[in-house]
Backbone:
């Protein structure tokens, strides 16, 4: 009897412990700030301007402005890097932001007039505001920010303009694609010093970068136009938040190496080989749903502005040639009547698929009318949406980091984020991407334009997607993990659970 | 002795299981991705049809299964007025021009969005989460003129007279129709309003399957008259069910302390909707003045109390906890005295359930008194709380809702009543001129915490004790490393939101 009682108590204890464990783990992290792979608009450690375009001849006035705001009382250093559309870093400069500072950069000032934040730059000699603190314990020394450049040497800027328009950067002739306007993307990181290191230098991550989620930012495109068309007689503008990429977990000193639950990070391909998640920046997703409007009496047009992670992480010039041809595994267009439009042949075909093999570089703005890229709209509808799987197929230069006995262990081998048969054919994971949508239309003589983020169908921790049934695969287009997702307990409305095949759980890498 | 290894093993599992997970749809943060509810935080339509000003929104079903999007239009005092359903076949996309609805009385012209639509080749004919038999075949294309007259009156003049109810003051008075819209995934083409408790036990679903965006045509600086025509667009607010899934009205535990529809859900199951709550503090950029005639509207959605006539009348204007303006030189502009003061001699800054207001409006925003043409505004939009709000505790493994003060409403915070801060959303519309062209653009303001963050305190800008900054404060420090200067003394921030 006593033994039974003891056993009974033990079982009760175990049940209580089990209940406790379930209660404490089932919703772990759901509530907290900065503890997710999802990208939201909130204070971040890195801001990504996914696409910029500047008429460097000053004829049309087309330019991109971006604004960085420090939402804390402490001074922060925002380290800006401009990259070509083949992800070649061409220029870096620092913005010293006093507490609660806001700084707008017109890239026409930088690229046409060779000036950062005219007239005198953004140095640490700026007088702080009433509520701002004088120093920041995470800034190594503000003295190296005293001489933040206002004016950039003309010879350097000539090289930068060359890289952003012709792809020629010094002796490297393949740093970017060729176009009339300067085209590229920008990254803005919170750092501890006014460093001139580029983010493709591993020392940048072990010495300079910090992990405080303190910056917000937005951008405006002035005079945007439908891709492939000449500027119209009128002028318009669009705006959108930059991509707010948070450090998870937040905080610590410059270059501090802290374990993160993120399987890989935004700067993965550039971080030190033994500490690949050192930047702790959230990774970006690979599948998106993007709306379009096209044609009709209002001359609807849509540009898809797409940022893509590249494959070649080295500084070698020749490697950048490959970034001109970064494959896209699947794009499906739906019109307003759910008709699905595909490329002429199935994708993921090796070179030789002819006109249907498409490529997009690291940063681009392309028209939904461009049938070299997007399945043609063959019905009379004037709107719909695209399913975009922008995974570039992966790379063995990418990594994921596993938890092996409590220690982070990076690997370049295939894992759970690159399941066999998925659209990652090399390496351990899908590639990262971001998509914004610019819509155009006419109302009388007025041209209307609006830009907004496309919806991501998973997050950067989701595994590589498979080819869908639209292109001969087995899985339907839909949110990452599939539908229906069913919590433990209830059935679907029809009383069954047989279709509960979806999941929101992303596998460990 | 046998228990010790087991307990140690369990403890180890706690550590492992407590490591952050980065699943989909498993956070309080709001992102742009498939969701169970879409919030159009503000619409404005010239129902006299003189200027062409209108708001369009588009809903897309990103799954192969048909979905029902249940649309509700609310006044700017959060009085629900009109509901209609969009039956979306798999991968369907449906745009609604609110001018069609409010001026011409037509939803998705000419025949509505009914279940008689032919699905696409990749679309499934049915869904296991829709009721049988389905009642969407007669979704209205044309809404009776008498009903639409009532709706227009409510959205412009604030007068409602219908369904045996007469109420003066369901909305504010303005020449255009102004309000907000919610769009929920539902199991049937119900006519119930989200203010009815039965809506949650019978109709609402939890599948994160809808995305949406909106366009404002002909927006203009608040208080001004549009001189030319422009457009602006933005995603709607994508509010996910956490956890996702289950049949209509299923009651599943959520880690969310409260939910988007909290104030309308059944009294004993306040988190039944499982929708993510929205935050209370924001950072919003502005441009104002200068040679390009810069102007900025802040479009602000705010959580109300109930949805009755009496509630609406009280919602003419809800107090805001704190608004601080910073210019480009970090000069700070505040109200003449501290806020949250009852009986202040200066106009107390108030805003209704939805509004679009110019940052030049000194009856709402602190004045910009120098020559700068840009900056940002810190907004603590917490309305002070409400006893009709709840949070749900975990009591012995069972969810227990409460209206009493909780750790989400710490003593001294800007929640003075009830258990938590109120929910809000902010978008920014910027205007400028280049020659004869008027430029406009809209985007979301940054939220400084999420909907699970506790009520913020009055900041040092207004005599409080805490500086303006991200929720939880800075510096947040992970275990182990110091700050760059070798110390940890300033590691006073946290990203952990307390259990309520």
Residues:
């Amino acid at each position: 009897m006593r033994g039974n009682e003891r056993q009974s108590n033990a079982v009760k204890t175990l049940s209580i412990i089990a209940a406790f464990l379930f209660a404490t783990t089932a919703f772990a992290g759901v509530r907290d700030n900065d503890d997710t792979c999802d990208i939201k608009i909130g204070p971040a450690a890195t801001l990504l301007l996914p696409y910029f375009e500047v008429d460097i001849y000053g004829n049309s006035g087309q330019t991109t402005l971006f604004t960085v705001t420090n939402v804390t009382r402490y001074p922060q250093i925002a380290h800006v890097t401009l990259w070509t559309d083949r992800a070649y870093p061409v220029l870096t400069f620092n913005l010293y932001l006093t507490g609660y500072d806001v700084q707008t950069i017109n890239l026409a000032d930088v690229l046409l007039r060779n000036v950062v934040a005219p007239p005198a730059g953004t140095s640490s000699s700026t007088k702080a505001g009433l509520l701002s603190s004088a120093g920041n314990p995470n800034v190594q020394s503000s003295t190296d920010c005293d001489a933040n450049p206002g004016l950039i040497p003309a010879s350097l800027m000539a090289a930068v303009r060359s890289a952003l328009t012709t792809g020629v950067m010094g002796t490297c002739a393949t740093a970017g694609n060729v176009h009339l306007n300067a085209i590229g993307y920008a990254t803005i990181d919170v750092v501890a010093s006014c460093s001139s290191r580029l983010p493709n230098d591993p020392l940048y991550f072990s010495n300079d970068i910090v992990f405080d989620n303190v910056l917000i930012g937005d951008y405006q495109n002035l005079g945007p136009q439908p891709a492939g068309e000449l500027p119209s007689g009128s002028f318009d503008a669009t705006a959108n938040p930059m991509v707010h990429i948070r450090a998870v977990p937040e905080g610590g000193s410059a270059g501090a190496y802290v374990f993160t639950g993120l399987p890989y990070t935004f700067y993965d391909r550039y971080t030190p080989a033994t500490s690949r998640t050192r930047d702790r920046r959230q990774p970006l997703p690979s599948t998106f749903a993007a709306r379009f409007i096209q044609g009709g009496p209002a001359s609807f047009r849509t540009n898809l502005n797409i940022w893509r992670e590249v494959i070649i992480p080295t500084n070698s010039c020749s490697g950048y040639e490959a970034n001109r041809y970064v494959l896209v595994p699947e794009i499906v267009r739906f019109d307003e009547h759910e008709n699905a439009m595909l490329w002429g042949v199935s994708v993921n075909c090796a070179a030789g698929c002819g006109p249907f093999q498409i490529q997009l570089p690291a940063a681009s703005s392309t028209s939904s009318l461009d049938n070299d890229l997007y399945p043609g709209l063959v019905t009379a509808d004037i709107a719909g949406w695209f399913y975009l799987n922008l995974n570039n197929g992966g790379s063995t230069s990418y990594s994921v980091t596993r938890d092996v006995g409590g220690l982070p262990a990076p690997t370049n081998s295939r894992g759970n984020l690159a399941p066999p048969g998925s659209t990652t054919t090399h390496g351990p994971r899908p590639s990262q991407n971001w998509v914004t949508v610019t819509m155009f239309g006419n109302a009388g003589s007025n041209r209307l334009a609006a830009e907004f983020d496309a919806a991501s169908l998973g997050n950067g921790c989701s595994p590589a997607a498979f080819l869908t049934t639209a292109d001969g695969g087995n899985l339907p287009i839909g949110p990452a993990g599939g539908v229906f997702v069913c919590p433990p307990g209830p059935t679907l409305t029809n009383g069954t659970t047989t279709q509960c095949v979806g999941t929101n759980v992303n596998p460990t890498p | 002795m046998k228990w010790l290894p087991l307990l140690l093993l369990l403890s180890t599992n706690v550590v492992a299981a407590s490591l952050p997970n980065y699943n989909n749809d498993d956070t309080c943060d709001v992102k742009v991705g498939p969701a169970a509810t879409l919030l159009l935080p503000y619409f404005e339509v010239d129902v006299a049809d003189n200027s062409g000003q209108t708001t369009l929104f588009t809903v897309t079903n990103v799954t192969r299964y048909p979905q029902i999007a249940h649309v509700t239009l609310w006044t700017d005092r959060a009085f629900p007025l009109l509901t209609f359903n969009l039956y979306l076949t798999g991968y369907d996309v449906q745009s609604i021009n609110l001018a069609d609805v409010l001026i011409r009385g037509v939803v998705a012209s000419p025949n509505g969005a009914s279940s008689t639509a032919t699905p696409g080749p990749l679309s499934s004919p049915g869904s296991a989460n829709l009721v049988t038999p389905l009642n969407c075949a007669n979704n209205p294309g044309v809404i009776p003129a008498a009903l639409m007259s009532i709706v227009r009156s409510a959205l412009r003049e604030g007068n409602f007279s219908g369904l045996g109810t007469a109420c003066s003051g369901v909305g504010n008075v303005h020449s255009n129709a102004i309000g907000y819209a919610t769009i929920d995934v539902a199991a049937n083409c119900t006519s119930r309003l989200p203010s009815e408790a039965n809506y949650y036990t019978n109709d609402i679903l939890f599948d994160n399957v809808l995305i949406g965006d909106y366009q404002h045509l002909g927006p203009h600086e608040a208080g001004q008259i549009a001189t030319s025509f422009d457009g602006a667009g933005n995603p709607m607010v994508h509010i996910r069910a956490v956890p996702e899934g289950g049949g209509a009205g299923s009651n599943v535990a959520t880690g969310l302390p409260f939910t988007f529809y909290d104030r309308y859900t059944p009294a004993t199951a306040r988190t039944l909707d499982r929708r993510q709550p929205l935050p209370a503090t924001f950072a919003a950029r502005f441009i104002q003045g200068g040679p390009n005639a810069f102007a900025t509207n802040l479009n602000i959605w705010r959580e109300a109390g109930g949805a009755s006539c009496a509630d609406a009348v009280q919602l003419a204007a809800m107090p805001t906890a704190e608004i601080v303006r910073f210019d480009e030189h970090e000069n700070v502009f505040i109200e003449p005295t501290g806020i949250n003061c009852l009986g202040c001699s200066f106009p107390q800054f108030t805003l209704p359930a939805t509004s679009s207001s110019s940052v030049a409006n000194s009856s709402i925003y602190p004045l910009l008194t120098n020559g700068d043409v840009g900056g940002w505004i810190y907004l603590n939009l917490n309305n002070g709380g409400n006893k009709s709000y709840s949070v749900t505790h975990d009591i012995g493994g069972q969810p227990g809702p409460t209206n009493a003060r909780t750790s989400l409403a710490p003593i001294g915070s800007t929640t003075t009543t009830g258990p938590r801060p109120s929910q809000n959303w902010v978008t920014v519309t910027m205007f400028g001129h280049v020659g004869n062209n008027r430029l406009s653009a809209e985007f979301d303001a940054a939220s400084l915490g999420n909907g699970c963050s506790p009520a913020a305190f009055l900041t040092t800008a207004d005599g409080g004790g805490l500086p303006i900054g991200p929720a939880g404060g800075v510096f947040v420090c992970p275990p182990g490393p110091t700050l760059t200067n070798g110390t940890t003394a300033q590691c006073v921030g946290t990203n952990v939101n307390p259990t309520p």
Notes: Chain B touches chain A through 144 residues (CB under 8 Å). Confidence is low (pLDDT under 50) at residues 1-19, 336-347 of chain B. Chain B has five helices and 24 strands. The longest strand of chain B covers residues 424-434.
